[in-house]
Specification:
The protein has 623 residues and is of the alpha/beta class. Helices cover 45% and strands 26% of the residues. Strand 2 and strand 3 form a beta hairpin.
Length: 623
């Protein structure tokens, strides 16, 4: 007859033969298996085969139809496979967990993120999968959602802080929803884990940027000091407390002397380094409780809290000026920086923060008028003077526009022949209401506001025009001397302006002399020498004013393309009564002659002065 294996589908025949062979080896026993049996018309049915071997080796078999159960099992397997495909399509890790914390289903993302080396075989617990631990989740870093879901029956969301499988600190948003059976009873939870670390990192970065922006709004970028707005906020707060407790405060406004010359001659990069060094020295000099801020440009402001008296503020002002004295070594340059200070006191001088700054600024203006490296306390009489200067500044701007300025010409006389050798152009302001205003008032004002440059250009143009007109009218040609301010002298376009004016007016260059001060030259000898060489190269003469009041050396004078030295009136006025001044005049004249320079003495008012200067060999003089 036919073998039993002939009645199953060919691909299962070997499986059936193996089952029979195993049963025969045992001698007596039973075996069962599931096979597809062939029937008529190539019809197959799944049958469960039960084989029994008796003690004589005879086999007895029984078949049980399991076609329906097998179909149901395949359907379930298909549904499970489909469900697995669906959850594998979810990007975030997903777990289906029963009430015993056993993982019934997990997706591909969860398997990849699992802390277990293998999650195949058996059903691991959820905390084994995502934490690699043997006890349930607890604590603030990774709270367990199961109790909360069982308690409320509602979805919950919480944060888990843990490391991923690569050991990186991560933050997960855990969402857990109840899983219910057909009767509606809760049988577990569905958990999803979304990595939201990037959101926290973005928030931290945004917070850092906001903090940085707040810092930049409140601080000076260059020095790191508080800026004006932040200083005022702190000043208002401290003034309010001081008013309640009866404490005294002091505000010190520091302005660096001639700082613009550093920027103009050495560049803004060097100027910035100077400001940083000044800030550093201020921090080292003052107490931690004192507030230092940079207002703008070269202005710093200091708030001294809880001072006993004005003398304490005065002592600090002295320490600040002393701290600036040591030479600054910057970009291979040795720089000597000084400052001027204005001081206001609370509650003596003002009751508001803005008025405290105004009072300190007014005092600073007075300090700068006194010269470099000074400090002044605010006094009530300064207000009237400040208002007067503000009005004066406004009027002076109008004076330039409406040509209220006029030039007076002071003759320069040959002391030996009495002949006119030249004239010096002196600017005067004829105010329509106040009359003639002293140059001592409007010249410093012009320098402070920057109006000295357009004023200087106007003076140069008018003086050249007048001298050209005199020559054209037939007068004996003489040299016109025009004073040049420090700001004009340092301007790159001075030569261009000068040549343009000479072309406009038709004045020959050798009938123009530009007068500069000794201090302007010595501030930056190299830059000054270069500018003087360019001026002399155009055929224009150069004179040094106030000679003898500075610190020029013979070596420097020999390098300068000068034509004239002018003796300052400070030495002339005491001729005959001050032997030291007499000796200085004699030395200046001798020095000038040794360098083939002309000498002009300023401020000659008496015959004694005239005769002395003449006897010294001084060629020219003026009143």
């Amino acid at each position: 007859g036919r073998h039993l294996a002939d009645f199953v589908v060919p691909e299962q025949a070997d499986k059936l033969l193996d089952l029979i062979a195993d049963l025969r080896r045992e001698g007596q026993g039973s075996r069962q298996g599931e096979f597809q049996f062939l029937f008529a018309s190539d019809r197959t049915l799944w049958m469960q085969l039960n084989l029994i071997s008796d003690r004589h080796g005879r086999l007895t078999g029984a078949l049980h139809d399991i076609q329906q159960q097998k179909g149901e099992k395949e359907r379930l397997n298909h549904e499970k496979s489909f469900l697995q495909s669906v959850v594998d399509g979810v990007c975030d890790p997903l777990l289906v967990v029963d009430l015993d914390y056993r993982v019934q289903l997990m997706n591909r993302a969860a398997r990849w993120d699992s802390r277990l080396f293998s999650v195949h075989g058996g059903k691991p617990r959820c905390f084994e999968v995502h934490l690699g631990r043997s006890t349930a989740c607890n604590g603030d870093d990774h709270p367990c959602p199961m109790p909360e879901v069982r308690k409320t029956g509602q979805p919950v969301t919480m944060l888990h802080y843990r490391r991923d499988r690569e050991g990186r600190e991560r933050i997960y948003e855990v969402q857990a929803s109840p899983l219910r059976n057909e009767q509606g009873d809760m049988s577990g939870i569905i958990e999803t884990f979304r990595d939201i670390t990037y959101l926290f990192e973005a928030e931290e970065q945004l917070q850092e940027k906001e903090n940085r922006l707040d810092y930049l709004i409140q601080h000076d970028v260059l020095t790191g000091l508080p800026n004006r707005s932040q200083f005022l906020v702190r000043l208002k707060r401290i003034m309010s407390r001081a008013a309640e407790s009866g404490r005294k405060l002091a505000v010190l406004l520091l302005d660096l002397d001639r700082f613009k010359n550093i920027n103009d001659s050495l560049g803004h990069g060097t100027g910035d380094l100077v400001l940083v060094e000044v800030a550093r020295r201020l921090k080292e000099t003052l107490r931690e409780s004192d507030i230092i801020a940079r207002l703008s440009g070269d202005e710093f402001i200091i708030l001294l809290d809880n001072i006993d008296c004005a003398q304490n503020a005065e002592r600090v002002a002295g320490k600040i000026l002393a701290a600036l004295e040591p030479v600054m070594e910057i970009n291979d340059c040795q720089l000597f920086v000084t400052g001027s200070l204005g001081i206001s006191l609370f509650p003596d001088d003002a009751s508001s923060a803005e008025d405290m700054l105004k009072a300190a600024d007014t005092a600073l203006f007075r300090a700068k008028k006194a010269g470099r490296n000074h400090y002044r306390f605010y006094t009530s009489d300064m207000n009237a003077r400040s208002r007067e200067l503000l009005l004066l500044e406004s009027s002076f701007r109008k004076a330039l526009e409406e040509e209220q300025l006029v030039l007076h010409y002071q003759p320069q006389i040959d002391l030996f022949t009495g002949q006119l050798r030249g004239v010096e152009a002196l600017v005067r302001w004829e105010h329509p209401q106040k009359g003639m205003i002293s140059p001592g008032d409007f010249i410093p004002l012009a320098e402070e506001t920057g109006l000295i440059v357009p004023m200087g250009q106007w003076v140069l143009r008018q003086a050249c025009r007048q001298n050209a007109a005199w020559i054209e009218a037939g007068f004996t040609p003489v040299r016109m001397t025009v004073n040049i301010s420090a700001r004009q002298f340092l301007k790159e376009d001075l030569i261009e302006d000068m040549n343009q004016i000479l072309d406009e007016t038709g004045l020959p260059p050798h009938f123009l002399e530009l007068e500069i001060t000794e201090s302007m030259i010595m501030h930056d000898v190299a830059a000054a020498t270069m500018m003087m060489d360019r001026i002399a190269g155009q055929g224009v003469h150069l004179a040094v004013d106030d000679f003898g009041t500075g610190y020029s050396s013979l070596a420097h004078l020999k390098r300068f393309p000068l034509t004239t030295l002018k003796i300052d009136r400070a030495f002339v006025k005491d001729i005959g009564s001050n032997r030291e001044d007499d000796a200085i005049i004699k030395a200046i004249v001798a020095l000038a002659h040794s360098l083939d320079l002309q000498v002009i003495a300023e401020g000659i008012e008496t015959e004694e002065q005239y005769l002395f200067l003449k006897s010294m060999g001084c060629e020219q003089g003026q009143g």
